[in-house]
Amino acid sequence: MGRPRVLSGVQPTGALHLGNWLGAIRNWVDLQHDNDTFFCVVDLHAVTVPHQPDRLAEDTLSTAALYLACGLDPAQSTVFVQSHVKAHSELCWLLNCVTPLNWLERMIQFKEKAVKQGDNVSVGLLDYPVLMAADILLYDADLVPVGEDQKQHLELARDIAQQRINARFGSEDQPLLQVPKPLIMREGARVMSLTDGRNKMSKSDPNDNSRITLLDPPALITKKIKRAKTDPQMGLEFSNPDRPETDNLLGLYALLSGKGRTAAAAECAEMGWGTFKPLLAEAAVSALEPIQSRYNELMEDRAELENVLKQGRDRAEGVATATVDRVRKAMGFLAT
Ligand code: AMP
Ligand code: TRP
C-alpha cells in the first residue's frame, strides 16, 4: 500500500480569507508530509456564477501563489490548475450521465447560491458538485480535507463513485473508482463572519469588514478587528450559545496565536474587549506577515510560478488521464 492520496482545491474567486486558511489550506500543509497530495485551483468552478474574464487568469495565478505562500511545497505536493487538466471536464460529463438530477437539486449550497443568482442560474451551478466529484475521483483520492460546508458534496462524490460507477460498471473485487472520505478538522472548520457570529466568513459577503483576507495589510486587519461585532459582556468564553461572536473571536485568537483553546480561554476569561481586540489584531498580523511576504516574492517571479504550475499539470495529467481512460473503457466507449 502506498501513502494515502489526498486532493483538495479552492476557487480563485475573491481573496482567500482566514476561513479558507484555517479551515482548509493550513491543514493541507500538514498533510503533505505523510500523504500523496494533490491541490488544485478550481477555476472551472469559478465560472459557475457570472465572472469577470479579465480577472480570472490573474486570480488563478494569485490563488496558486497563496497556496505556496501558506506552505504548500511543490517538491512534496502536486499543485496545479484544474482547467489545465482536460480530464476534469471529461470525467464530469461521464458522471453527469449517471447522476440523478434530484441528487443535485437537494444540495444546500446550490439552493443558497441559486437564490442569490435570481433568475440567472446556470446549468453549471447545479452541476458544480459533479465537477467536484470528478476532481476527487480522477485522482483516486482517499481523503479530501475541506471545511464543514463541503461535507454534503463529499457524500455526493461517494454515492456517485459507489452506486453509480462501481456498482454499475466495475466488478466486485475491482472497484473502478476509489470511494473518498472527507477530512474535516474540528478547529477552524467554521470561522464565522466578523460582523455576524451566526454566519460563516465568506468570500461572497458584500461587507468587506466581515472577513480578513490573507493579503489585508496590518492597518486594515487592525481596523476590521476593532469594528468586529461583540457583546456587552466582560470576559471571553467558548461555547456560550448566546455569544457566538465571542466564541468565534476567541477561537481565532487560539488558532492565530498558536496558544490553543485551553490556554487562550484561561488567558482571556476575565478580559474586556478593549484589551482583547488589540491582542487578537497583533496575533492576526504576525500570523499573516510571513505569508504575505512570501506571496509578494512569488508574484514577482511569474515565470517560476508558471513553471511550478506546468510541472504540477504534467504530474496531475498522468494520473487523471489513466483514470478517465479506465472509466471510458468500463462504460464501453470505442478505444481511441
Ligand atoms: P470557498 O471559499 O467556499 O471556495 O471554500 C474553500 C475552502 O475553504 C473549502 O474547503 C471550505 O470548506 C473552506 N472554508 C470556506 N469558508 C470557510 C469558513 N468560514 N470557515 C472554515 N472553512 C471555510
Ligand atoms: N467546492 C469546493 C469549495 O467551495 C471547492 C472544490 C472544488 C473542491 N473541487 C474540489 C474541494 C475537490 C475539494 C476537492 O470549497
Rg for CA atoms: 21 Å
Given the helix and strand composition, which structural class is it?
mainly alpha
**Structure annotation, total helices:** 13
Largest sheet descriptor: 3 strands, parallel
Helix amount: 40-55%
> Oligomeric form of this entry?
single chain
Distance between the termini: 31 Å
Fraction of residues in β-strands: 5-15%
* Weakly predicted, low-confidence segments: none
Q: Can you characterise this structure?
A:
This protein is mostly helical. Helices cover 55% and strands 7% of the residues. It contains 13 helices and 5 strands. β4 (143-145), α8 (151-169) and β5 form a beta-alpha-beta unit. α4 (87-96) crosses α7 (123-137) and α9 runs antiparallel to α12 (273-300). The longest helix is centred in the C-terminal third of the chain and has 30 residues, at 302-331. Bound molecules: adenosine monophosphate (AMP) and tryptophan (TRP). The site of tryptophan (TRP) has 14 residues, from β1 and α7.
In brief:
The protein has 336 residues and is mainly alpha-helical. The chain has 13 helices and five strands.
Topology readout:
Layout: E1 5-10, H1 18-31, E2 36-41, H2 43-46, H3 53-69, E3 77-81, H4 87-96, H5 101-105, H6 108-117, H7 123-137, E4 143-145, H8 151-169, E5 181-183, H9 218-227, H10 244-257, H11 261-268, H12 273-300, H13 302-331
Parallel strand pairs: 1-2, 2-3, 4-5
Helix pairs in contact: 3-12, 4-7, 4-13, 7-8, 9-12, 10-11, 10-12
Bound molecules: adenosine monophosphate (AMP) and tryptophan.
